[in-house]
Amino acid sequence: DTMGARIRRGLARGEFRVVYQPIVRLADGACLGGEALVRWQQRDGSMISPDRFIPVAEAEGLIERLTDEIIEHVFADLGKFLAARPSVWIAINLSASDVESDRVRGRLDRLRKTHGVAAAQIVLEATERTLIDARRAQSSMRSFRDAGYRLTIDDFGTGYSSLAYLATLPVDGLKLDKTFVDGIGSGSAADDVMGHILSLAATLGLDVAAEGVEHQAQADYLIARGVTYGQGWLYARAMDGNAFCGYVDGHL
Ligand code: G
Ligand code: G
Ligand code: MN
Ligand code: NA
């Protein structure tokens, strides 16, 4: 079978679920949110990485159905928890066609209203590539923003966005790609690039979160440079919804 056919079957069989990775405030480890990450375990038990199936779902017109399913899981897992904790937020990854999808937007609006979750508790993560690909992305993003959702640029620094372009995007924050965190202390050019990214973020008034933080020395460096949030194995791996709720309540 092709990957596309397998994705369709996986959707029909309910094989997709969602795990949640805490995002902490670097200065004190407080956790007020996290990122939803899709997982696909096939009937035979084998796991397929989103790195493999998300691009296929995007190419074969299946991504909106998949994102819709992921949003359903997020609210089934965390809806009650979020409604009871208005300062806690969850980040959901959107692909290019999701940003402009009435189906995805409708699902988000409906579920959060049903559960009593504020739009500001939902952070939409889109990659630079997503934002450039989506022709009408800017008006769709503004519409999400006007409704109170928060937007961040994922994998920041791996795309080709110019400063001028970024300054026009209606976003609240950016996620510094893991490659920069990996390069910390290596004395490589990545250090200089990161410095420029961080001063750009400060100029634009954007929140910065660093991904893939694995070592305390990386966290110390990021804190010294004014990065607010961190996500990575140093703090916590992705976990199921129940464990995530317990983690947040233990680190508020
Ligand atoms: O969770 P993991 O490290 O395996 O994710 C690998 C890649 O898949 C990352 O780039 C991540 O952004 C992407 N990804 C994970 N979950 C989702 C999702 O729910 N939707 C989309 N569009 N991408 C996701
Ligand atoms: O591309 P995106 O940032 O959306 O995806 C995050 C991916 O990074 C997830 O697949 C997650 O499992 C992975 N990840 C999160 N923290 C760490 C980390 O500390 N180290 C490594 N190697 N991967 C991580
Ligand atoms: Mn992401
Ligand atoms: Na990323």
From TrEMBL:
Residues covered by the EAL domain:
1-252
As for subcellular location, the record says: Cell membrane
The name this protein carries in UniProt is: cyclic-guanylate-specific phosphodiesterase
Question: Could you tell me which species this protein originates from?
Answer: Tistrella mobilis (strain KA081020-065)
Output the lineage of the source organism: Bacteria, Pseudomonadati, Pseudomonadota, Alphaproteobacteria, Geminicoccales
